[in-house]
Specification:
five-stranded antiparallel sheet; Helix Hairpins; cytoplasm; mainly alpha; SH3 type barrels; Substrate Binding Domain Of Dnak, Chain:A, Domain 2
């Protein structure tokens, strides 16, 4: 099947068909271009999406630690790689499909134009031959008619008797001339006809089939090129499928790597303070002598004085239990209980303490109106939702466990920097030795400033490491020293005048977060003079101040870091310990601020 033999007379149709083929090729190229733009925009949007949700690595504290976060960021990385593969698809299509199509379309237009020009030239040559043949034919026809007229004129004169011989002779010459010209035109017409027939045969059987064959081959190559582009279009996508599959497998592996137990452990490691929860609050029984007082009903005046002496001793033992902050901060002055005590005698001469009616009402009033000492949940947040104070260099604003971790991290970083500086010093020394052995390579003195700077950096880093190790040893020593007693400091942190407690509790409102010693009630001042001369409580141990304490609140005792005090009353679970200086000044100090050592034979006195 050939266009030259089958479509010898369809030159215009083939012209239109080949033009349609090129238009279709360009249309498909436009489709590929739009697909490339879609892929590029898709990849760009994916990268912007990844960039939007990727963490900004401004500091190490913001780095993802939880497995769920790490898995999400791994998915983002895989998605970023997936976007890269979409860009590869776009580049492959642009280079292998679109670019090739545009180049081939340009070549195809040039080739088609050349073949059509050849066909038109052949057609024009055939038309010229036909015109020559037609002109010779018309000329031959005209000469034949002129010869026929000349013959008729000669015959008419020859038969006319009146015609002269000269006229007859002239008509005969004219006839011979026309006959000769007719014969020449006949020969020319025959030659032109033969030439035209030959050119026509050559045109329709040689030239046109050849041109149409070239057009056919061109159109078939166009079809083949489209097929190759279709295949390349699909191959561009298929080549990245293995990598895209790996990206999807990476996402699945990231999803499988999520470990809820590990995340929970990270929460514990991140926010563990190192303190122990507070113990139970003791029951303060204010009604233990009510029924005894009511049943007795009489007071022995004769033994009141001796009963008063016994009451002093009893008060000295029980005042810490009945009223925690009942003593004013006066030297050698024991705190008063919130009740007025007096004694009563029994028939057998024994004495016991009783309460008056007014103190009973006072105790009941305290029970009804007093605020329960419930630990504030905000104080347990350790700086989560409250405003953080300025971070200290030794991390003393953090709980012990967090402080230890931060110090350990800093020590590790400093050790890495120290190792780097040491390597640099060794390299500079080696270079200096080379320069000394080979002066032409460089001046050894030029390395001296850099060596001095490196040595200064090494000394500075060693000092920093030593300082941080001292802080770390202090934290670990405190944690070990306080491991044998109950910590109640993470509930009752004392923060006065915007000061940070060593355990890292923060507050904006001192009335909400700070629970210092309560002020003495005004109507108890009448008992101050009564017990002014009481004997001081015996010391049951000693303590060393770990942190300084201002002691601005009434009933508290100021202390300096490292100061040694006597313990006269243990912490009852409220976060306060009663202590005494050597000069006799007494008061309450935060239990979390001191390192307590109790005497074995006096503990629990």
């Amino acid at each position: 099947m050939s266009w030259g033999t089958e479509l010898w007379d369809q030159f215009d149709s083939l012209d239109k068909h080949t033009q349609w083929g090129i238009d279709f090729l360009e249309r498909y190229a436009k489709f590929v271009k739009e697909r490339i733009e879609i892929e590029q925009n898709y990849a760009k949007q994916l990268r912007n999406l990844v960039k939007k949700y990727c963490p900004k690595r401004s500091s190490k504290d913001e780095e993802p630690r939880f497995t769920s976060c790490i898995a999400f960021f791994n998915i983002l990385n895989e998605l970023n790689d997936y976007a890269g593969q979409r860009e590869v698809v776009a580049e492959e299509m642009a280079h292998r499909v679109y670019g090739e199509l545009m180049r081939y379309a340009h070549d195809l237009k040039t080739e088609r134009k050349m073949h059509l020009q050849e066909g038109r030239k052949a057609q024009q040559y055939l038309d010229m031959c036909w015109k020559q043949m037609d002109n010779s034919k018309k000329k031959f026809e005209r000469e034949c008619r002129e010869a026929e007229k000349a013959q008729q004129s000669y015959e008419r004169l020859d038969n006319d008797t009146n015609a002269t011989k000269a006229d007859v002779e002239k008509a005969k010459q004219q006839l011979n001339l026309r006959t000769h010209m007719a014969d020449e035109n006949k020969n020319e017409y025959a030659a032109q006809l033969q030439n035209f027939n030959g050119e026509q045969h050559k045109h329709f059987y040689v030239v046109i089939p050849q041109i149409y064959k070239q057009l056919q081959e061109m159109d078939e190559r166009r079809t083949i090129k489209l097929s190759e582009c279709y295949r390349g279009f699909a191959d561009s996508e298929r080549k990245v499928i293995p990598i895209i599959s790996k990206c999807l497998e990476g996402m699945i592996l990231a999803a499988k790597s999520v470990d809820e137990r590990r995340d929970s452990q990270m929460v514990v490691d991140s926010f563990k303070s190192g303190f122990e929860p507070p113990g139970d609050f003791p029951f303060e029984d204010y009604s233990q002598h009510i029924y005894r007082t009511i049943s007795d009903g009489t007071i022995s005046a004769s033994k009141q004085e001796s009963g008063k002496m016994d009451a002093k001793t009893t008060v000295g033992k029980a005042k810490g239990k009945l009223w925690l902050f009942g003593k004013k901060p006066k030297p050698q002055s024991p705190p008063l209980t919130p009740t007025s005590l007096f004694t009563s005698s029994t028939p057998n001469g024994s004495q016991f303490l009783t309460f008056s009616i007014e103190p009973v009402h006072y105790c009941m009033n305290e029970i009804k109106t007093g605020k329960p000492r419930i630990p504030s949940f905000r104080s347990l947040k350790r700086g989560w939702s409250v405003k953080m104070g300025p971070a200290l260099e030794d991390f003393s604003h953090l709980p012990p466990e967090q402080r230890r971790k931060k110090l350990q991290q800093r020590i590790d970083e400093l050790n890495r920097e120290l190792q780097k500086e040491s390597d640099q010093k060794d390299a500079l020394n080696k270079m200096k030795d080379v320069y000394e052995k080979n002066p032409q390579m460089g001046d050894p003195g030029s390395l001296q400033p850099k060596l001095a700077e490196t040595m200064n950096n090494i000394d500075r880093l060693r000092m920093e490491i030593h300082k941080n190790e001292a802080w770390l040893s202090e934290v670990e020593g405190k944690a070990g020293g306080r491991g044998d007693r109950r910590h109640s400091g993470d509930i009752n942190h004392l923060v006065t005048q915007g000061r940070e407690s060593p355990e890292g509790s923060y507050t904006d409102d001192a009335n909400q977060e700070v629970r210092g010693p309560p002020q003495q009630q005004g109507h108890h001042s009448e008992f101050d003079d009564e017990f002014e001369d009481d004997d001081p409580l015996p010391a049951i141990g000693h303590c060393k101040a770990i942190y300084p304490f201002d002691g601005h609140n009434e009933g508290t005792l100021a202390m300096k870091e490292g100061e040694v005090l006597y313990i006269i009353e243990e912490d009852k679970g409220d976060g306060w310990t009663r202590a005494r200086r050597q000069n006799g000044e007494e008061g309450y100090v935060p239990t979390s601020y001191i390192d307590v050592t109790l005497e074995k034979n006096s503990k629990g006195s």
